[in-house]
Structures are given as C-alpha cells and as structure tokens.
Amino acid sequence: MEKNKKDIYDRIYKFVLKVLQVLKLISKTPENLVLIKQAVRSAGSIGANASEQMVRKVKGDLFINSQFRKRKQKKPIIGFF
C-alpha cells in the first residue's frame, strides 16, 4: 500500500514535468499565452489536490482515533479536585 502512495506522487510529478516541457515548445503568441498559463495552473493543481487529499486523510484518521479514545474512556476519571 505504501508503495502505491509513493507511486501516484511520482507519476503526478512526471506528468507535470512532461506538460511543462510540451508547453515550452509552443510559440508564445498572445493567444497561446492565455492557454499556456491555464495549462500550467491546471497541471499544478493536480499535485496540489493530491497533497491536500493526503493531508485530509491524515487529519481524518487523527479525528477518528481521537473520537475512539473518547468513547473508550467512558468511566469518570478521579482527579485531584
């Protein structure tokens, strides 16, 4: 499973690099500049979305674990009060 996680990031990275290499070959006319900028933003957002999903998953796991601990600890704790 851990290998698959790393594999998707490697594939995204390679894809973004290929997109940028192709975009360097396109002539820089005013019409093309708009499309080039949009393609760069789109390619970059793929990596951003993947990393955001990973962060959300980690935070979700932490939230679920904390809720489990709260449920597990139903007995009142005797403190120094």
Explain what this protein looks like in three dimensions.
The protein has a domain at 2-55. The protein is 83% helix and 0% strand. It contains two helices and no strands. The protein has helices at 2-25, 30-72.
Task: Provide tags for this entry.
single chain; 81 residues; mainly alpha; 2 helices; elongated
Largest sheet: none
Number of H/I helices: 2
Please state the average pLDDT score: 77
Q: Rough shape?
A: elongated
Q: What is the SS-derived class?
A: mainly alpha
- Strand proportion, as a percent range, falls in under 5%
Catalogue the unreliable spans.
none
Share of helical residues:
over 70%
SSE sequence, one letter per element: HH
Radius of gyration from CA coordinates: 23 Å
| CA distance, first residue to last residue | 48 Å
Strand tally? 0
Summarize the structure.
The chain is an all-alpha fold and 81 residues long. 83% of the residues lie in helices and 0% in strands. It has a domain at 2-55.
Outline the secondary-structure elements.
Layout: H1 2-25, H2 30-72
Helix pairs in contact: 1-2
